[in-house]
Amino acid sequence: MNTPSEAAKIGRRITEYREQAGMTQQDLAKALRTSQSAVARMEAGEQNFSARTLSKISKIFNREIITLSDETTDFRIEGGRKLSGTVTTNTSKNIDVALLCASLLNRNKTILKRMPRIEEVYRVIEVLESIGVKVKWANGNDVEIIPPKKLSPEKINLEAAMKTRSVILLLGPLIHLLPRFRLPHPGGCKLGKRTVRPHLFALQKLGVKIKTDDDYYNVRIDTLRPAEIVLYESGDTTTENAIMAAAKVPGKTVIKFASANYMGQDLCWFLTQLGIKMEGVGTTTITVYGKPDINKPITYYPSEDPIESMLFLSLAATTNSSLVIKRCPIDFLELELLKLEKMGLRFKVSKKYKARNGATNLVDIKTFPSKLRALEEKIYARPFPGLNSDNLPFFVPVATRAEGQTLIHDWMYEDRAIYYLDLAKLGADIILADPHRVYVSGPTKLTGTEIICPPALRPAAIILIAMLAASGTSILRNIYSISRGYEDLANRLNKLGARIKILRSL
Q: Which domains does the chain have, with CATH numbers?
């Protein structure tokens, strides 16, 4: 038995997948051996769904309808295959969720193009809809956002909010829309203690008063004022929140020790197109000249995801495959490519061309089968322009193929390196030195096994890569973590020659 809200949620998902597949209600009815009117009731949320019906619909679309129920989705992987072909980088999860939140700054319609249909985006949309924002999917992967005259933060969807860390990005926009509100503590990847104090310190400089209790941030705004903000931590989401908060505060706000990373830059390009004057984009000091009223219809093209490009680079290196990876944001991959080059990976990079946002530089990268060797130096992440922290895990499966011993130092998160030990279940020679450092010796032969996905996106993704390289059959259980950040990944990989079957179970 489905509750009305669950039925409506499932109905919306069916509509989205049907339209994306280019099917009519009649087409779907024929595939289900039912009537068009029955399909209409399903999509309207006026019908209960049995596990059998959900399973049939999931098989038709080969998409994860079933994850909205109490069932889980698994991957069965026949590994050890060399891959080939071309794959195109999608837009970035981290950019997209920030832009969804930033759309609240605009009193007019915002259209975000080519949004990935991933769980993280769905969760943020569910939060926005619950507080009164009108959100509509159109033309397959475009999202239209129309803010209401009045928000209802007290009606926030707590279940959705607690599944995503991105809910913290609502702080910056909401301070301009509500004199008082409360926001639940964010969820997302389980990567140890991740402080939100840098967000709170930054907003307090603008005049925002925030008190925390066990479950909520209680926010009060009397008078907002421009300020010079020194960020307590040069974090990506911290920088984005500070930028969004400053965007509608009249006057000049200077943000120092800002992250210059790709998602913050894209947010700045978006706000610039909305009429916000900014200086220092792409540097660690960003100046925002706030504009109290933003009322402009806008169609914006979010840029491509360097982390997804890196996933495919890691996949090519680990499976010793030749792939063409299109639309890679090269400015945020240069150091990663240099490290891979020094490890022996052979690849060719095309001439640069601009993304649809008019600012981000893109290239196409072709990889070739290569003999890899370990670097003498440790591989570690640091704020941009250093190696991206989300790209660091992708060196772990690569290191299993490299001759010698690789030290990977994941200093940013207390617990993430511990998840890397799951690769040992596949036969990787990996030693945990401490909660932040692993030694990977190679080359080693990987063999298929069964693993439950860790509750963190990038560690889950590298297990999938290792399973694709491993001989035999692997089962990756409960792939929700992967679905948070990558759209339709199994089918995209299968088009490259992988053999991944989607399994659904109670």
A: 4-56 (1.10.260.40), 75-90+304-505 (3.65.10.10), 93-300 (3.65.10.10)
